[in-house]
C-alpha cells in the first residue's frame, strides 16, 4: 500500500511539474523575443537573466528555512502563484516591460526558486538511488512533450495575430495553466518537516567535504553553459528566421528529439555507464556547435538544436543523479537534504551568473555572429569541466554501491 501511494504521489508530482513547465514553455520561449522587439539590446537580455539568477539563488537559501521547518507544499504553490503574478505584470506593462528588467527578473527568479526548491525536496523524498534515473527520464520526457506542444502553439498564435495581441493571448493561456497546476498541487500530500534549518550548512559542507567541493565545482561548470544557452539559442533562432512561428517550429523539432533521447537515456543509462556517457555527451555537445562557425542560420541552428537534444541526456542525467545520490549517501546527508539542495542551487547559480556576465562583457564589445559562435563554443565546452571533477566518483559506480570516502 505504501509503495502504491508513493507511485501515486510521484505521478502527481510529475503532473504538477509538467503543467508548470508547459506554462513556461508557452510564454517563456518567447519572453526574450518579446523584450527584444521593444529594445534590440543583447546586454539587456543578459541583465534580465542576471536578475533572475540572483533572485533564484537567494530565494533557495532564504526559503530553505520555510521548506524544512514548515509546509514545503505551500512554497511550491506560492512559486506557481508568483509565476502567474509575473505574467500579469508583463501583461499590464506591455511594451514598457523593458523599463523594469530588474524587478521583473527578480520576480520571475523568486517564483522559480520557490517552486524548484520545493519540487527538488519532494523529488528527493519520493525517489531513491534505484528509481532516480527513471524518474529523471520521465521528467525529461514530459518536459520534451511540453516543449513540443507549448512553443508550437504559441508561435502559431503570435504569428497569426500580428502585433502584441498574440503575445497577450499566450500570456493569458500561461496564467490559466498555472492556475490548473496550483489546483492539482493540493492533491499532493503534506510532507513531514525534518528538523531545524542550518543557514550556514552549505558553506560548512563545502569546507568539510571533498565530495561536495567536487560536486559543486561540477555544477558550477554546468551553470556556465546553461545560464547563457537557456536564453541565447531561442533569440538567435528568432533573429535568423525573423518569425515567431519558426522559433515554435524549432522548439517542436528539438523537443521531439529530446522526447526520444530522454526516454532512451532513462531506460538504458545505468549508474555503471555514467562516466563514459557523460564524457561522450560533453564532447558531442561541443561538436554540434561547430557548424555555426561557417554560418549562423536557421538551418545550422536547427542542426545544433537537434544534436543538443539528442546528446544532452548523456550529460544531464548523470549530473542530476550523482548530486542527489550524494545527498542520500548517509543518514546525516539525508537529514540535511534541504541545505544540500540549496548548496546545489547556489553552485549552479554561481556558474550561470559567471557565464552570463562573460556573455554581457564580450557582446558589449562585439556582437558579430563570429563572436557569438566563439562564445558559444567556449561556454559549450564547460561540461568537460563537470566530468573532470566527477570522473573518479563516476568510475567508482558499480551498479548499486557507492564506496564510502
Automatic annotation (TrEMBL):
Any one cellular-component term (Gene Ontology): plasma membrane
KW Transmembrane (keyword) present: yes
InterPro entries in UniProt: MFS, MFS_trans_sf, Sugar_transport-like
Subcellular localization: Cell membrane
Transmembrane segment boundaries: 12-36, 42-63, 75-94, 100-123, 135-153, 165-188, 217-241, 247-264, 276-294, 300-320, 341-365, 371-390
MF-aspect GO terms: transmembrane transporter activity
Topological type in the membrane: Multi-pass membrane protein
Annotated keywords: Membrane, Transmembrane, Transmembrane helix
Endoplasmic reticulum in keyword set: no
PANTHER family noted in UniProt: INTEGRAL MEMBRANE TRANSPORT PROTEIN-RELATED, MAJOR FACILITATOR SUPERFAMILY (MFS) PROFILE DOMAIN-CONTAINING PROTEIN
Protein name: MFS transporter
Organism: Paenibacillus stellifer
Amino acid at each position: 500500500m505504501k509503495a502504491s501511494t508513493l507511485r501515486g504521489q510521484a505521478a502527481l508530482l510529475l503532473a504538477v511539474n509538467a503543467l508548470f513547465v508547459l506554462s513556461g514553455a508557452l510564454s517563456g520561449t518567447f519572453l526574450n523575443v518579446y523584450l527584444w522587439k521593444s529594445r534590440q539590446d543583447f546586454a539587456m537580455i543578459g541583465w534580465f537573466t542576471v536578475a533572475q539568477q540572483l533572485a533564484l539563488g537567494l530565494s533557495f537559501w532564504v526559503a530553505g528555512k520555510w521548506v524544512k521547518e514548515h509546509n514545503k507544499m505551500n512554497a511550491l504553490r506560492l512559486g506557481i502563484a508568483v509565476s502567474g503574478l509575473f505574467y500579469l505584470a508583463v501583461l499590464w506593462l506591455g511594451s514598457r516591460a523593458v523599463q523594469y528588467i530588474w524587478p521583473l527578473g527578480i520576480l520571475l527568479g523568486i517564483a522559480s526558486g520557490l517552486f524548484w526548491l520545493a519540487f527538488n525536496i519532494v523529488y528527493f523524498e519520493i525517489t531513491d538511488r534505484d528509481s532516480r534515473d527513471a524518474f529523471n527520464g520521465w521528467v525529461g520526457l514530459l518536459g520534451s512533450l511540453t516543449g513540443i506542444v507549448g512553443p508550437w502553439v504559441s508561435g502559431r498564435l503570435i504569428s497569426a495575430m500580428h502585433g502584441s495581441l498574440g503575445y497577450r493571448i499566450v500570456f493569458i493561456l500561461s496564467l490559466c495553466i498555472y492556475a490548473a497546476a496550483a489546483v492539482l498541487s493540493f492533491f499532493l500530500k503534506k510532507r513531514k518537516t525534518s528538523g531545524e534549518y542550518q543557514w550556514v550548512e552549505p558553506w560548512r559542507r563545502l569546507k568539510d567535504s571533498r565530495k561536495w567541493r567536487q560536486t559543486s565545482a561540477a555544477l558550477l561548470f554546468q551553470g556556465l553553459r546553461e545560464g547563457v544557452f537557456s536564453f541565447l539559442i531561442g533569440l538567435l533562432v528568432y533573429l535568423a528566421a525573423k518569425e515567431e512561428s519558426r522559433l515554435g517550429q524549432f522548439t517542436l523539432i528539438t523537443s521531439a528529439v529530446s522526447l526520444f533521447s530522454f526516454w532512451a537515456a532513462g531506460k538504458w543509462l545505468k549508474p555503471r555507464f555514467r562516466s563514459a556517457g557523460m564524457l561522450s555527451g560533453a564532447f558531442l555537445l561541443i561538436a554540434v556547435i561547430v557548424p555555426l562557425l561557417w554560418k549562423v542560420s536557421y538551418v545550422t541552428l536547427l542542426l545544433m538544436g537537434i544534436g543538443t537534444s539528442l546528446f544532452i541526456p548523456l550529460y544531464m542525467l548523470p549530473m542530476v543523479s550523482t548530486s542527489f545520490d550524494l545527498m542520500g549517501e548517509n543518514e546525516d546527508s539525508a537529514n540535511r537534504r534541504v541545505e544540500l539542495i540549496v548548496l546545489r542551487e547556489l553552485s549552479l547559480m554561481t556558474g550561470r551568473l559567471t557565464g552570463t556576465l562573460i556573455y554581457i562583457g564580450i557582446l558589449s564589445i562585439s556582437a558579430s555572429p563570429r563572436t557569438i559562435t566563439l562564445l558559444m563554443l567556449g561556454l559549450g565546452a564547460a561540461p568537460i569541466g563537470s566530468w573532470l571533477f566527477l570522473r573518479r566518483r563516476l568510475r567508482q559506480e558499480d551498479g548499486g554501491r557507492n564506496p564510502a570516502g
